Amino acid sequence: MARVRAGRRVLTAALTVAMMAGGSWMAPTAFADETATAPPGASGAPDVTAQTLYGGMGSHPVATNAQVGPCQASIVGFVQNVAVHIFGNTEDLTCTAAFPNGLDSPIGVNTYFPADIADPAEAPLIVLTGGIDANPGMYDRLARQWASNGFVVTVPYDWFNSLAYVPAAGLALAIWQNRDAGSPLFGKVDLSRTIFAGHSAGGQSTQQIVSALPGVAGLIDPNLHVAGALAIEPGPLALGPLLGVPTLYLTGVNDFVVPDFAWVRWWQYNLTWNAPAWIANARGVSHFSPVDGIEDYRSSGTAVAWLRYLGFGDETAKRFFVGPEWALRNDKTYFSVERNALANAVR
Length: 347
Known about the structure:
Layout: H1 2-20, E1 32-34, H2 50-54, E2 62-64, E3 69-70, H3 75-86, E4 94-95, E5 108-114, E6 123-129, H4 140-148, E7 152-157, H5 165-179, E8 189-199, H6 201-212, H7 217-220, E9 226-232, E10 247-252, H8 263-268, E11 277-282, H9 300-312, H10 315-318, E12 334-339, H11 341-344
Parallel strand pairs: 6-7, 6-8, 8-9, 9-10, 10-11
Antiparallel strand pairs: 1-2, 2-5, 3-4, 5-7, 11-12
Helix pairs in contact: 1-5, 5-6
């Protein structure tokens, strides 16, 4: 118990420090709007999948402080872009000027949100952490897709992206913006529906923070509640038995960096005893597909369905994961789909 209390104190202190830093390296710059297109409507056709329903952009225009451009503008970005194309990506990478892709600070948080956020009462929060050596701009497409579906999305980064303090910084900035009367997000972030998501190293740091945060959430903000987690091709430094929130693991048949048969099953999904868990291994998906175009990442629609299920209680999205006739298990996009006993019991 002493170790648990100590761990909670460390996490709380890290969050406090991150919030205090919010006025400097985490402060947002001017926001720019970008209009998104609506996703396909629901249908009862047998070939309907999460990708056909949720794989496009949502109905909200998107505002962000992230300034992105072609990664090829730097030598580092040029090499990264060539590498992902070798592994099958279709779209060129996008990058910010965060070091080493530019001269901006290598540490920070970008924010994406519905530009019409003055209209909805509140928007659920997603903290999206990228992979090691990944520039935050590489997740611009995913972050825009999620924000266009009605979420506030923070993208924290420090190049390493591998430990819980990184998503903690993303959470801290969202809390700070929600309390700042001068922020467009003032009073608009629904912390009671907070979801952590991450890719690669960010997938492991996502699991780390959702393992520790629920026990101290009320001390950080009385409204804070962790609704669930999304671990996309996660790194090995996380343990399934520590998870206490619903978690979806997304893997890829063509992923040789985080193979579906390795730790993501051995000591993550297979050992998730204390929370509902799902795992889906997509055909044609490599480790770098999540930073491809959203139409090229074949699990982007499943990710949105999961987020909408957790964040909005979307009944159509829920049917992909819940109940005896859950739809994801019949989706031919996936080589294998499983859920644990606690997920089987969810209604």
